[in-house]
Amino acid sequence: MNVFVIGIGLIGGSMVLDIKKHYPEATIYGIDTNEQHLEKAIELGVVDKKATFNDIENADIVIVSIPVDVQLHIIPKVLDAVNDNTLVLDVGSTKEDICLALKEHPKRRNYLATHPIAGTEFSGPTAAHNGLFEKKTNIICEVEKTAFKLQEKALEIFSKLGMRIRYMDPKSHDKHIAYMSHLSHISSFMLGKTVIEKEKNERDIFDMAGSGFASTVRLAKSSPAMWAPIFEQNKTNVIETLDEYINNLQQFKELMKQNDFTEIYNEMESTNHIKQILNGIK
């Protein structure tokens, strides 16, 4: 089995590591515009060989793990090159734009739109590791537009990697993910920005940063090259979530001004219900 991964970072790299574990006969080919990433991936055993787009005609599976703006141009190029039995999937955090871009492509049936909810703040080939997808949700969009035999191939792989599958249309996916992922990244980036601007002494930040601050600002270490295009593609939904979030922050601020700490307590107690929700999906 010839597996090509385009963009060798956390998601793509971890996926091919797990594929190698469950399919020892697989040969993993890497394509990356960053030559150092490619060399490192080979050194770490994430991929077996370098490849170019000219080699994709020999692929059984192509995993596209690149920024969502770039994939709008790359995935059509990949589909142009693959044979009729090749499965092409992406792992991007937005789905509506790419599904619209590929709607009329002659080889649309070869493509599966997926989004594994398994990211961390780390990037590059050194971030890749086995077991990343165990018990993680993988959202699949427009599954009915993918050839059935290729659906089966993908679902077999996802099952071996330990993923839970959720089906969703692209528009709903982008709306929900704006709340569940994109907003938390913006919050983390802006918290980090606020602290850096106010606390000029880096040593003070280091000395006083407790576990709460570290966990809240963790996502601010994420790659801007990946996240700025996500915010651009999901602009409408992200703005809607920001409006609601800012409104809640303003209400909290007003309660503080009014010394209404009883209501602040009530709001926090009500929000504690999130513990039961999150415990239920583990």
UniProtKB/TrEMBL annotation:
<protein>
    <submittedName>
        <fullName>Prephenate dehydrogenase</fullName>
        <ecNumber>1.3.1.12</ecNumber>
    </submittedName>
</protein>
<dbReference type="Pfam" id="PF20463">
    <property type="entry name" value="PDH_C"/>
</dbReference>
<keyword id="KW-0560">Oxidoreductase</keyword>
<dbReference type="GO" id="GO:0008977">
    <property type="term" value="F:prephenate dehydrogenase (NAD+) activity"/>
</dbReference>
<dbReference type="InterPro" id="IPR003099">
    <property type="entry name" value="Prephen_DH"/>
</dbReference>
<dbReference type="InterPro" id="IPR050812">
    <property type="entry name" value="Preph/Arog_dehydrog"/>
</dbReference>
<dbReference type="GO" id="GO:0004665">
    <property type="term" value="F:prephenate dehydrogenase (NADP+) activity"/>
</dbReference>
<feature type="domain" description="Prephenate/arogenate dehydrogenase">
    <location>
        <begin position="1"/>
        <end position="282"/>
    </location>
</feature>
<dbReference type="GO" id="GO:0006571">
    <property type="term" value="P:tyrosine biosynthetic process"/>
</dbReference>
<dbReference type="InterPro" id="IPR036291">
    <property type="entry name" value="NAD(P)-bd_dom_sf"/>
</dbReference>
<dbReference type="InterPro" id="IPR046825">
    <property type="entry name" value="PDH_C"/>
</dbReference>
<dbReference type="InterPro" id="IPR008927">
    <property type="entry name" value="6-PGluconate_DH-like_C_sf"/>
</dbReference>
<dbReference type="GO" id="GO:0070403">
    <property type="term" value="F:NAD+ binding"/>
</dbReference>
<dbReference type="Pfam" id="PF02153">
    <property type="entry name" value="PDH_N"/>
</dbReference>
<dbReference type="InterPro" id="IPR046826">
    <property type="entry name" value="PDH_N"/>
</dbReference>
